[in-house]
Design a protein that fits this description.
By secondary structure, the protein is an alpha/beta fold. It is built from 14 helices and ten strands. The protein has three domains: 71 residues, no CATH class; 148 residues, Rossmann fold; 112 residues, Rossmann fold (3-Layer(aba) Sandwich), CATH 3.40.50. Strands 2-1-3-4 form a four-stranded parallel sheet, with helices on both faces. α9 runs antiparallel to α10 and α12 crosses α13. The longest helix is centred in the middle third of the chain and has 26 residues. The radius of gyration is 25 Å and the shape is globular. Bound molecules: zinc ion.
Length: 345
């Protein structure tokens, strides 16, 4: 976290004066790390060139000092938070407001099952005050990342705020990481994020609490809307064929039965036996539609629609937010629920 009052020091150790953000001229001449690059710098600092202008005069210093004192009141981010999921990015932006600078390491459209942090990502994460993850084993690189970026202490595992659904895969019980398809889980994750932001930046606790309350209200409205929409679909029609097994939390909350083509991860490949069984099930159960996913290759799903006569139900966002109709969490839920209800009606 930025030390807010560092800027009000009255003397410069090198005698050459301070910049408006409290750094002295020597500090400005040092190579700047990624932490500073990501900060919003006061305009004074970016304009001033110490080497040419030399010592800041008494008058200018007084102006700089008053700017420095006023700056924290103008919405300058207090925390830098790296986010390893588009879902936690949405939470951080809503709960943090203008007090948090969010670094979205995983961007919309990126597959979190396949993601590996680059050296540039590791640098950004090292410089962040907190790191948000969704947990439940989806970040296979987590232990290594914690070791190389300063330890597990600043990692916030939002998926630890509620119990996991367990699924059977190849005879083993595995945690289902796709918890964001339960709006109840989102509320608990947002509450955990609020707590950790307030602990890291107690001066802005009331702001995080206010922002979180507004976000929770938005989620509650979203949940009521989703319940009303799904209620339009008779129980016997709530059968969802999707590319990979990502919608079990939605199935639990809204009474769907899931038939997934792939397993719990996008890199699982279905066997021809599994595809044949699925085709039988779709015909027998009279499943009306097969849904594609925004980041999955639709080849097998297309083949299944051809061989069963089921229609293409549309595209769902399984592993996170997208660029257009699903660029926020509420938009993603609205897109998915509307697509499912329209496709299966
Ligand atoms: Zn997934």
């Amino acid at each position: 976290m930025r030390k807010r009052f560092e800027r009000s020091r009255s003397e410069s150790p090198d005698g050459r004066g301070f910049l408006a953000d409290g750094r002295d001229c020597q500090e400005l001449e040092r190579p700047v790390g990624s932490r500073e690059v990501g900060r919003q710098q006061p305009p004074e600092a970016s304009r001033r060139r110490c080497g040419e202008e030399g010592i800041i005069g008494r008058k200018r210093f007084a102006v700089s000092l008053s700017l420095a004192i006023l700056w924290p009141l103008s919405g300058w981010a207090e925390l830098t938070v790296a986010s390893l999921s588009t879902i936690t990015t949405d939470i951080a932006q809503n709960v943090g407001g203008d007090k948090v600078k969010v670094l979205p390491i995983i961007k919309p459209g990126v597959d979190p099952h396949e993601f590996q942090p680059t050296p540039q990502d590791i640098k950004q994460i090292s410089n962040a005050d907190l790191v948000l993850i969704t947990g439940k084993q989806i970040e296979g690189y987590l232990t290594k990342l914690e070791e190389s970026t300063g330890g597990a202490g600043k990692f916030v595992n939002t998926g630890a705020a509620f119990p996991s659904l367990k699924l059977e895969e190849e005879g083993k019980s595995v945690e289902d990481p796709h918890w964001w398809h339960s709006i109840e889980n989102m509320k608990k994750a947002a509450t955990l994020v609020k707590k950790r932001f307030a602990e890291a930046d107690p001066a802005n606790k009331a702001i995080y609490e206010g922002n979180a309350a507004a976000y929770l209200e938005k989620l509650a409205e979203l949940e009521s809307w989703a319940k009303r929409e799904v209620a339009k679909l008779p129980r016997e029609k709530r059968k969802l064929v999707t590319s990979h097994d990502a919608f079990q939390y939605l199935a639990r909350d809204f009474g769907f039965k899931i038939y997934a083509i792939d397993g719990i991860s996008t890199d699982d490949e279905p066997s021809s036996r599994k595809i044949a069984d699925l085709i039988d099930t779709i015909k027998r159960e009279g499943v009306k539609a097969v849904f594609f996913e925004s980041i999955e290759n639709p080849k097998v799903a297309e083949e299944i629609t051809r061989r069963t006569g089921a229609k293409v139900g549309g595209e769902l966002y399984a592993d996170g937010l997208g660029d257009k109709t699903a660029s926020t969490y509420p938009d993603m839920v609205r897109h998915n629920v509307t697509t499912i209800v329209e496709g299966l009606k």
